Amino acid sequence: MPYRFEPYASESGETNSESDSGDDNPPDDRQIPLDLQRLNNVEWCTCGCCRADNLETVQECVCCRELAKVQALNGNHEGSCITQHPGFEAVCLNEYVLDVAYSYYKQNHGHLNKSPHER
Q: Where in this chain does the record put each P2X purinoreceptor 7 intracellular domain (predicted)?
């Protein structure tokens, strides 16, 4: 299940990790509407890479351009999707990197009873 461990946005637009950090409202953060109108379409997508067939829940229906932290990471690659960033493939799609990340997760949070693909 993609994005399983990402913090959910609250009504105020903060995520769980943002409220813990003491940073009340990060600059350029927009409140992301979490409504059913986003399911089964990608009219809300501004990067051009979101696909409705991959998004199963309202929480997953968020474009990378709607997140200030992702925009900051995308830096000088502005105007494109975060998946087109040069580091995305190496960090997010490399099987060996994901194995190391899962090992770290497992040490801190315990084993997930999921298939290797789902982990």
A: 39-104
H helix intervals, 57-94: 68-74, 86-88
Query: pTM of this prediction?
Result: 0.57
Q: Are 26 and 72 in contact (CB under 8 A)?
A: no
d(CA 82, CA 63) in angstroms, rounded, equals 10
Please answer whether residues 27 and 68 qualify as being in contact, where contact means their C-beta atoms are separated by less than 8 angstroms.
Answer: yes
The b/e string for 85-103 (b: 16+ C-beta within 10 A; e otherwise) is beebeeeeeeeeeeeeeee
* 8 touches 16 (CB < 8 A): yes
